[in-house]
Design a protein that fits this description.
Helix content is about 10%, strand content about 25%. The chain is of the alpha/beta class.
Amino acid sequence: MKMCIMGVLLLLSTCNIHAYVPDPLEVEYDNYTVNFDSLSNQERARMTWIQGDTISGWWTNQQAYLVSGGELDESGLYSLGLSGSHERSLGGMVSDQEKHVLWGVSLLN
């Protein structure tokens, strides 16, 4: 786990991207799970991302996320799932204009 987190931080520094990384979530052993179903399911909406709060402990270099069933082609962070479904996943897409869409979680074991 530490190698993965260090890799994300290294990517941030080599890409010269500044993202707010919240205080780490304390986890016991290897029991960390996350549920993205709290993300909006309002099709084609642009929702504000609150660092460390939209999904507890998670951060991104984006200020908002888009809601889609996968048909949008705009760069950004996405709440993906069927229209109106509360079963969501988190994903991202990049383009020539915006080459870096980063997200992650900070953990303390």
